[in-house]
Amino acid sequence: MGNHYHLCVETPRGNLVEGMKWLQSTLANRFNRFRKANGHVFQGRYKAILLDGDAVGSVCHYIHLNPVRAKLVDCADLQVYESSSFNRLWYSSKRRPYESFEVGLYSAGGLKDTRAGRRLYRDYLSWLSQEDSEKKRIGFETMCSGWAKGTDDFRKSVLEDLKDDQLSRVVEAEASEMREPRWERAVVDMLSRLGRKEAELASSPKGVIWKVAVARLLRERYLVPNRWIAERLSMGRVSTVQSLVSRHRTNKDQSDESWEKLQNHETLG
């Protein structure tokens, strides 16, 4: 793309940080040499999202449709856009040894890596680009947000891994927002302490006392942004979180057993 790129990478050795450091610096050096320029090429650290196997196919579709969404090429001619891996999917003779297209093809309906299968995949991408409901179902709107994509069981297993110090360092270093997995784990722990279910976050009122207590602790102990809290706890607007937490903090006469339970648990998070 004109100002960014996307990669879908498998790292069996857990060395994404090392690999990306090499890639970013090498690309920046060559870019500056080609342009006869100096200085930074990238604005900041890359964004990485952990993927469950079931989520990889959707991410491949999202990446392949990037130039179509940017109106750089029509979907019917996607194979001619040489800056996309779809070009090499279509023309198999151009492929690099490390590239694999099986997951994307298979998730589009069990397609095979044949000439007919590639045509059907292009047809599928063309259909997908116009089907807003399907894009919403597979998460196109939030594809670049969060820290993990996949099933609830996958996210829970990652959070369990965070309890291991060595795995924690790997996960947090390679997640899109390095602090976000810890925030997520804190929410799960707090719900457990309070005897609450995940579904209650969406079904309960925005200002219910136990939910506000969770929001306050997230702010005070973990410095979690209000925007993340508002979305994760289903509390509406950012201003709502700010107001409710502030009121909870100053209302000293109000009895709140939830806050006491959270405060008294030293091993939280």
Q: Roughly what fraction of the amino acids lie in strands?
A: under 5%
Helical segment count: 15
Reading the helices and strands in chain order gives HEHHHHHHEHHHHHHHH
Strand line-up in the sheet with most strands: 1-2
Can you tell me the number of structural domains? Answer: 2
What distance separates the N and C termini? 39 Å
Mean pLDDT: 85
Q: Flag low-confidence runs.
A: none
Strand runs, count: 2
| Helix proportion range | 55-70%
The Cα radius of gyration reads 22 Å
Which structural class is indicated by helix and strand composition? mainly alpha
The shape, in one word, is elongated
> Main beta sheet, described?
2 strands, parallel
How do the helices and strands line up, and which of them pair or pack?
Blueprint: H1 16-35, E1 50-51, H2 53-64, H3 66-69, H4 85-90, H5 102-107, H6 115-130, H7 132-137, E2 148-149, H8 152-161, H9 165-174, H10 180-194, H11 199-203, H12 209-222, H13 226-232, H14 238-250, H15 257-263
Parallel strand pairs: 1-2
Question: How would you describe what is shown here?
Answer:
The chain is mainly alpha-helical and 269 residues long. It has two domains: 16-142, no CATH class; 179-269. The chain is built from 15 helices and two strands. The chain has a two-stranded parallel ribbon. It starts with 15 loop residues before the first helix and ends in a 6-residue tail after the last helix. 21% of the residues are buried. The mean pLDDT is 85.
